[in-house]
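Notes for week 9. Today we move from apo structures to complexes. The key idea is that a small molecule is not decoration. When we ask for a structure prediction with adenosine-5'-triphosphate present, the ligand SMILES becomes part of the input, just like the chain. The input block below holds both the sequence and the ligand string. Read it once before you look at the output, and try to guess where the molecule might sit.
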Amino acid sequence: MSEQGKAPGPAEELLRIRGLQVVFDGFRALDGVDLTVGKGELRFLIGPNGAGKTTLIDVITGLTRPAAGSVKFGGVELVGRKEHKIVRLGIGRTFQTSVVFEELTVVENLDLAASFRRPLRSLLRQRRGVDEVVAQALETIGLTELADRPAGVLSHGQRQWLEIGMLLAQRPKLLLLDEPVAGMSRDERERTGRLLTEIAKDHTVIVVEHDMEFLRRYASQVTVLHEGKVLVEGDVAQVSADPRVQEVYLGRSGKEAAA
Ligand SMILES: Nc1ncnc2c1ncn2[C@@H]1O[C@H](COP(=O)(O)OP(=O)(O)OP(=O)(O)O)[C@@H](O)[C@H]1O
């Protein structure tokens, strides 16, 4: 993994969102969101239920079309592009529901995910051995020893790592992860934190997460959404000390913000 591009100073901009508005039946799910994410950032996106986090990810990935605003990725406008074109530009996401094929092995799942980048002729030709990108993804997610086991036998945590590996196999520049540690044990959360830190060395990662303890340990920059707007942005210390953030979280669950 390369450390290049991690020199101090402002990171090169990768994602630039301006004036984003999403309206569902007259309800503004996003109401003028501006967000800039630099290359190599591990950005956390938090906010109470209904704040607009998933909607924001849906707009970036082309699933939801905004009523107004712009989403530029490496200078390229994404609004109006189809989902699969956005994937090909280098944006991968996980969903809250699993996309793993249980009857295929771990390595077959990764291979399938990688295959969409391969030219058709190499798909038709029988290939031997494991692709470099697949082997690397397998190692990064720490599932090399389980490579030939069916994905159906994986634990919840291992399955989440496989999904992240499937994204890596598609060689994205930007990964969008929706609640990657939901339902995980403490040990699995720690492994996931280390995995995300490793991945962020040569990718940009945006994580939607509710787990405040996880956020405090692994986030660098945090953006807090509330009622479709950016409420606060900064590093973990700034954001958790901000009275507006405490108020929003105290309104929902006093323990989370005060802990
Ligand atoms: N397809 C839809 N049609 C109508 N309303 C929607 C739709 N999708 C989302 N909403 C509404 O938009 C608001 C933002 O939802 P969103 O799922 O983006 O919030 P969130 O921050 O991801 O919340 P959570 O933490 O609960 O996942 C909510 O009030 C939700 O009910």
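The first helix runs from residue 53 to 60.
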